């Protein structure tokens, strides 16, 4: 049986990344342990039609963000890693500086010290040098920085296709198999030639 994956949703715009990730993981039979910040709960109201209870129902275990005595606050509790989706700059800053003032940051710090994958889907743009410095510092500690930047090689036809591609990239980092998007297998040279000839004519 696979180890549980910790999922944290913080208060950046894009809470749908965390919600949809939980939904996908549930469909895959992957055990999830969830932490939702107060700001994320507020953004859930603003950005989606989901209630907090809807989101909690997608996880196997849910923790209060103030419960620093929770199981995921200890390295002796084994997990397969942690994904913060989305990740605020405040959360990024706290992780980069080991300022473990709540359970999200404590669980992330534990993930790093135990050398488990920690994926931070940082949501902010444009970025100033302070943001970049924090990302660099977090990366130096072992975090994987994965801002949800859309790709188009898989020819998305909906917003959910774009969301799934970013979620899939995050799941790749923690070794969870999925079929959320069509992977790049090289460009068909014959198709490229046909397209070149079409443009030329």
TrEMBL record:
Ligand binding (FMN): 11-13, 37, 88-91, 123
Q: Which UniProt keywords apply?
A: Flavoprotein, FMN, Prenyltransferase, Transferase
The record's GO molecular-function terms, alphabetically, read: flavin prenyltransferase activity
Q: What Pfam families does this protein map onto?
A: Flavoprotein
Q: Name the SUPFAM superfamilies on file.
A: Homo-oligomeric flavin-containing Cys decarboxylases, HFCD
Q: Does the keyword Nucleotide-binding apply?
A: no
Q: Quote the record's binding site residues for dimethylallyl phosphate.
A: 153, 169
Q: Which family does it belong to?
A: Belongs to the UbiX/PAD1 family.
Q: What is this protein called?
A: Flavin prenyltransferase UbiX
| Organism annotation | Geotalea daltonii (strain DSM 22248 / JCM 15807 / FRC-32) (Geobacter daltonii)
Q: What is the lineage of its organism?
A: Bacteria, Pseudomonadati, Thermodesulfobacteriota, Desulfuromonadia, Geobacterales
**Gene name?**
ubiX
